[in-house]
Amino acid sequence: MKTETTIHGLAASLNPARHAKKLIGFVPTMGNLHEGHLNLVREAKKICDLVVVSIFVNPTQFGPNEDFDNYPRTLDQDSHLLADVGCDIVFAPAVEQMFAKEPRKTNIQVTEITQGLCGHARPGHFDGVALIVTKLFNIVQPNYAFFGQKDFQQLVIVQQLVRDLNMPLEVIGVPTTRAEDGLALSSRNGYLTVEERALAPQIYASLNHAKVFLEQGEALKDILEKMKNDLTTSGFEIDYVEARTPELETVLHFDQDIVLFVAARLGKTRLIDNLRVNVPT
Amino acid sequence: MKTETTIHGLAASLNPARHAKKLIGFVPTMGNLHEGHLNLVREAKKICDLVVVSIFVNPTQFGPNEDFDNYPRTLDQDSHLLADVGCDIVFAPAVEQMFAKEPRKTNIQVTEITQGLCGHARPGHFDGVALIVTKLFNIVQPNYAFFGQKDFQQLVIVQQLVRDLNMPLEVIGVPTTRAEDGLALSSRNGYLTVEERALAPQIYASLNHAKVFLEQGEALKDILEKMKNDLTTSGFEIDYVEARTPELETVLHFDQDIVLFVAARLGKTRLIDNLRVNVPT
Hints:
Chains A, B: GO terms for molecular function: ATP binding; pantoate-beta-alanine ligase activity. Helices cover 38% and strands 21% of the residues of chain A. By secondary structure, chain A is an alpha/beta fold. The mean pLDDT of chain A is 96. Chains A and B meet through strand 5, helix 6 and helix 7 of A and strand 5, helix 6 and helix 7 of B.
């Protein structure tokens, strides 16, 4: 496995493979890797000849009061994990590589589907994601890019971005990797105290209960209300509990396939999860 | 010369060349071609193995009261001209190819340098340019793209866009092609009456006089004022007469290299031109 820290070095490593028509897979990450990331790499290995993983904590997707400075940087450990799952190239640029000294003047906005859900609590977050993803796609020029379904809104936004700008690649969503007790794996889980960690699986449990109730015919509105109440009672501070279509359009009734979304805080840690519920056929 | 009207067809035509490591040059146009466009193709031929010219009248860069519907579409004539200068592939997509039925949600903005000059009279114009250029670059994936210096602000904006988004290509500015009397070639010159056509070269003459006065030490502010007065007296309706740095920053004095810009109307036709003036060394 090679590690490249410059755009120039990465191009030099990738161009021979590109010219040999190898299929290039790309997994963008912010490092501090867990099994969820490694499963993205494993999926990429299945259909690509060569897999690039980027490790870059992107300043433009953090808000002023968010955890950019404290976000864990664990490159050595991440590199070992990536080598074990067959990653071919790690791209770990410094901030100066990705954002040159000369002031940037270009912004990318994805409208509508960036509003609400995580777009509400994190203003500007998805503009930062759209920008860095576009830059990384142009630098890596992959055939396929892999994103986790845990960040479902991000996945749909990136797919829209790629479609709207005719980017020459396919974005693949990979099912969420979970701990045995159901908690969606996330780098931020490391912030949880032991007590909080014991409570955290209730988010996924709540989503699954909601699914059962929906399939039994209970009203969507009542179910969302019940989820909020139950999680609040358990000690979560609710950010949102919401249903959308898989294209992120608002939905009032369970008369089509939907995705249930939860974002909630335990102490200082913000957790998100989601579950798709298909209308019975 | 091949003509492709679909994104899929263009990819099929280009991929063998791309895999053979041919250098691909790209000249985006709105058709109604003149010697200025043909010179872009000639420049492209000098350094590229294969040249693609797109002909697409882009609805997103026209304002509601502009000439989108009446903009001349002359594909047959354009194709003959392009074949004569050695263009390899004409890409002439329908609007539905470039803008699918599904609503677009992604916008690109280049800030600061899109303000003022043509950005003032044509609000939203450069957002439309940034979007279509990004889409076309992603579709064609050229090594080099060629733009005329006549649209100097557009050239600088596209260069900024490419740099900010790390697009894997180089943007090359080609000097303005002029009629014998100095008028910058433009598709819109065809709108001029005989009388207007006789007056039109005064724009370039005015720029050249200004250059001489600057080099003689006259104050920039006075010169710009004189240009406005003279052109107005001659029958032009001034949109702007302005000086900027070559990076499009505002400039008050001729203490560095500058570009002089003119936009003015003759009847219903809006003409633009510019001239670089370097500080004497």
